[in-house]
Structure formats: structure tokens, C-alpha cells
Amino acid sequence: MSYGMSRLEDEYYEPEGQDTDGSSSVQVNDEFSKLHNDIFHMTRMRSGLSESIYKSMGTNRGIISTAKLLSGREVDCSGKGKFSSGDRAFVLGRYVPMNGPKILDRMDSRAYVSQFSADGTLFVAGFQGSHIRIYDVDRGWIIHKDIHARSLRWTISDVSLSPDQRYLVYSSLAPIIHIVNVGNAARESYANVIDIHDGLDFSQHEDVQYAFGIFSVKFSSDGRELVAGSIDESIYVYDLHANKLTLRLPAHTSDVNTVAFADESGHLIYSGSDDTLCKPLRTIHQNN
Length: 288
Hints:
Keywords: WD repeat. The protein is of the alpha+beta class and 288 residues long. It has 2 domains: 86 residues, no CATH class; 172 residues, Methylamine Dehydrogenase, Chain H (7 Propeller). It is 19% helix and 30% strand. It is built from 5 helices and 16 strands. Strands 1-2-3-4-8 form a 5-stranded mixed sheet, with no helix packed on it. A hairpin with a 4-residue loop joins strand 6 and strand 7. Helix 2 crosses helix 5. The longest helix has 25 residues. The chain is globular, with a radius of gyration of 22 Å. The chain starts with 6 loop residues before the first helix and ends in a 6-residue tail after the last strand. The relative contact order is 0.10. The N terminus is likely disordered.
């Protein structure tokens, strides 16, 4: 897997007047070696068995049967009383669904985007006809919230729930992302009629020269920031507490179709683009 560098990182690692003794190249290689290790360890933590499981089973990275893992959990071999999220991902990764598919709901326009909440209790679907529906998975997939979107351009291109599941943001092919409170009791949410759907302007950056659309948006793990991928080949970061755009990364050479914060720090972003590249990008703020 190859990694590309954003223009911002290019400028950071290639200062004017650098000498040609190879020290700059070593610095870049060291940085990307560290980045590769960070990604490896994060992936392993989130999709592999924890160290406590291996220790309690008395094995060194060998194959452990699912039955043995479940038996160990019941007698609390790990000392934690339950599987970690990585343990659960490891066990579930051995199986594929056996039942379905079945139709749960039907709308009069195309479903364009869908995703589960982080804990799997809610499912969000965005439709081309200005609708977003949130389904309660634990209660038989009943409609938890029916949202009528505001200022839609062509379709709902992405949705994201905040970590506490109180807020939802949605994007379309416009530079404005809307945020709505979905934590209240009302099932219906009409933009600026029943609920206020605040607009967050992602075209505030001084380098933006023309209107663009947003393909992807995600909350940070603490709910304080949004990251967005756009049609202008860039990645944007928006500070919700400060209510302003804080970063623009011209990271690709074509549309950025998907983005996400990689970890809790907010300093590493994953992105995927029509230029056929998936990139891990470190965000470099001026105060860092």
C-alpha cells in the first residue's frame, strides 16, 4: 500500500534552502514509518484479539476457536468481564449473515447513503428526495426520526451521527452542511419549521475560489469537529465549538468521496478519492 502526501505536508517537509545530503528524505521516511506503525496498531486494536485474551488462553498468537473464546469469556479469563470491541470484531469477522435480505421500508426516491451508529443501535438512511430516516434497530427497526432536509442540491450525499447520538449532520452537493438536533422526542423534523437545521459554511477558507459540493462528512470521536471531503479535491475540518472552518487540505487530484478521523486525537484523517488513492493524512495546525 502506498501513501501520498498532501500539499500541506509537502511544504512542511521540504522547507526552502534544504541541503542535499539526504537528511530531508530520512525525515520523511521516518515519519511515514511511524505513520504506518500507528495505522497497523490501531487496526489491530480494533479488529484483533486483545493481549489479555492471548495471555489468559496461554497461547502466542495461535488460532483460538470461537467456542474456546466464548468459554473463556463466561469464566472471565481476561479479567474484564466481557469482550473488548476488538475481540467482538475478531469473532464476528469469522462469520457471514445467513438470513435475508428483507425490505424494512420503502420510499418514493432512491436511497443514496446509509450507516449504523457506532454502537449499532440506530441506522440512518438518506434519500434523494430530501428525506433522512433514523431507525431504532433494537426496537424492531421502527422509525426513530423522520427528517425533511433543507436546501438540498441533487441528493443527500452523506450523514453522520454525533458520538452521543444527539446531533446529526447531513451534506449535499453544496458547500453548506446542516446540523439538526435528533435527541428530542418529536419524530418529525422539518427544516426550520419544527426544528432549526443550522447551516455550517465550508466555503469560508481564503483559498476557496468557487462553489463546490461535499461528498462525505464525519464527526470526530469527541463530537467537537467535523471532517468533510469535497468535489474541489480537498479535505476540510470544521470546529463546532468555535463555529468556524479551521483547516483545508488540498489532498487529492480528483473528487474526495470519503473521509473519517482515524483515532481519538483528531490528528490523523483517512480519505478516499476518484484519483484511485486512499490516504492517511496528518493534520498540521499552526499551533502544533
